[in-house]
Specification:
Blueprint: E1 2-7, H1 11-22, H2 24-31, E2 35-41, H3 45-50, H4 62-66, E3 73-76, H5 84-93, E4 97-100, H6 103-120, E5 124-125, H7 137-141, E6 149-155, H8 158-170, H9 174-183, H10 192-195, H11 198-212, E7 222-223, H12 231-239, E8 242-252, E9 258-268, E10 280-287, E11 291-298, H13 302-322, E12 345-355, H14 360-370, E13 375-381, E14 386-393, E15 396-397, H15 398-409, E16 414-423
Parallel strand pairs: 1-2, 1-3, 3-4, 4-5, 7-9, 9-16
Antiparallel strand pairs: 6-8, 6-10, 8-9, 10-11, 12-14, 12-15, 12-16, 13-14
Helix pairs in contact: 1-13, 2-13, 5-6, 6-11, 8-9, 14-15
The structure holds NADPH dihydro-nicotinamide-adenine-dinucleotide phosphate (NDP) and L-homoserine.
Length: 429
């Protein structure tokens, strides 16, 4: 019998308790051992009672779990950096295997946790930390291990994907959809982490570390959120054959340099990620042997996330039975150069307001040309006195684009630069 010590009985923790009970026979058969909930640490014990967990299984403090030699696997579902980090390290140092869904912790403290796990020859599994119920970490480490991964592009945040889907379908403003998402419980009262792209940034830090075998932390990720996206941008995207999605992008060039960023992006309507709507998540992976692969599903929620957590528990039990714990530990054996945003290359959509008279376009095009920025397409909408000008560039270095825009802003024919959004999912042109 394998005994679990559960930390946190909130949304996901409750799902784990339910799933261990609901599918106990399947789990026992597949793992080869019966898996039981032995002790639970939870601040609000009422949550435990509601799940039918008896008082004798409720820990008084963390030491009740860490010092219980019968506990084989600690499942950390309290979230945040501390005390989660101390609890996880404490469990590992006592020879316990750990499962966690905590992206905040792994994106920042991954190196220390993996080092401790290796030293103690225990498993640390974290499938639920990225994409909730979608299998992506294990496939990248195992099934796709033969590939040189060229890029990983994810829609990794359900809240913002719901909001952008709503803006696209119903023509609503950012403020309107945020209010609605909060009323429905998708967005939190303080939505910063989701709408500013930080949640997705933590997840792509984790995925890119695995894909490129090099430790990428949150600080390495360039982040832009969706707060500046307007119905006008969404309409222009549609007119040009694109949709706007918040993408988490990780790419590796032929020299092994990597770029990791989160930003709203135009993607062609024909791209597989363009059809990922509402709160769904997806991860698109390009490998040199496998080609394009897409993983799609529910990126959050009680039972989808519990599915990933319990899957990790089963895998650890299988390792225990074969004496092969520690088999798949840290895979960051390399140290790749992470590009700064100025050195990244992308195609851009630029929306600006300009004076509508002869020579204006030529003046703007001249500034771009002098800075190595090549224009691929131009769209202009007539206004009363001013016109709205949309430019799509070929692939350019960000430093060159920013320099051009700094110069363009000073032209007396340019009223304002209203938005700048990257294009993604196109072959290089
Ligand atoms: P919840 O807030 O619902 O649950 C966390 C639980 O842990 C709460 O009941 C909380 O109690 C309790 N808790 C927090 N700190 C302590 C502590 N020091 N001692 C004892 N109990 C504590 O969070 P979720 O279940 O939503 O998330 C858990 C983890 O899973 C997070 O890392 C999250 O990022 C991750 N995750 C969540 C997903 C989701 O869909 N919810 C999807 C993918 C990953 P109290 O409420 O009293 O603070
Ligand atoms: N806040 C996240 C989302 C779910 O909206 O996808 C938890 O990672």
């Amino acid at each position: 019998m394998i005994r679990i010590g559960l930390l946190g009985c909130g949304t996901v923790g409750s799902g784990v308790v339910k799933l261990l009970e609901q599918n106990k026979d399947i789990i026992a058969n597949r793992a080869g051992e019966t898996v039981v909930l032995h002790k639970v640490l939870e601040r609000d014990v009422e949550k435990c009672y509601q799940l039918g967990i008896p008082a004798e299984k409720i820990a008084q403090d963390i030491d009740d779990i860490l010092n219980d030699e019968e506990i084989d696997i600690v499942v950390e579902l309290i979230g945040g950096l501390e005390p989660a980090f101390s609890y996880v390290i404490g469990a590992i140092n006592r020879g316990k295997h750990v499962v966690s869904a905590n992206k905040d912790l792994i994106a920042v403290k991954g190196r220390e946790i993996f080092k401790a796990a290796e030293e103690n020859n225990v498993d640390f599994y974290y499938e639920a930390s990225v994409g909730g119920g979608i299998p992506i970490i294990y496939p990248l480490k195992q099934s796709l291990a033969a590939n040189r991964i060229k890029e990983v592009i994810g829609i990794l945040n359900g809240t913002t994907n719901y909001m952008l889907t709503k803006m696209t379908r119903e023509g609503l403003s950012y403020e309107q959809v945020l209010k609605e998402a909060q009323e429905l419980g998708y967005a939190e009262a303080d939505p910063t982490s989701d709408v500013e792209g930080l949640d997705a940034a933590r997840k792509i830090a984790i995925l890119s570390s695995i894909a490129f075998n090099s430790r990428i932390t949150l600080d390495d990720v360039y982040v832009e959120g969706i707060t500046g996206i307007t119905p006008a941008d969404i309409n222009y995207a549609a007119e040009l054959g694109y949709v706007i999605k918040l993408l988490a992008v990780a790419k590796q060039d032929d020299e092994g340099n990597v770029e990791v960023r989160v930003n709203p992006a135009f993607i062609p309507v024909s791209h597989p990620l363009a059809g990922v709507n509402d709160v769904f998540n997806a991860v698109f992976v390009k490998g040199d042997a496998v080609g394009d692969v897409m993983h799609y599903g529910k990126g959050a929620g009680q039972m989808p996330t519990a599915s990933a957590v319990v899957g990790d528990i089963i895998e650890i039990v299988r390792n225990m039975r074969c004496g092969s714990n520690g088999r798949i530990g840290c895979t960051c054996y390399d140290e790749k150069r992470v590009l700064k945003v100025d050195d990244m290359k992308a195609r851009f959509y630029i929306r600006m307001t300009v004076v509508d008279r002869p020579g204006v376009l030529a003046g703007i095009a001249g500034v771009f040309g002098n800075n190595n920025v090549s224009i691929a397409a131009v769209l202009q909408k007539e206004g009363e006195d001013m016109a709205e000008l949309i430019l799509i560039t070929h692939e350019v270095r960000e430093r060159d684009l920013r320099k051009s825009l700094d110069e363009v802003k000073t032209l007396d024919t340019v009223g304002s630069i209203n938005n700048i959004i990257r294009l993604e999912g196109l072959d290089k042109q």
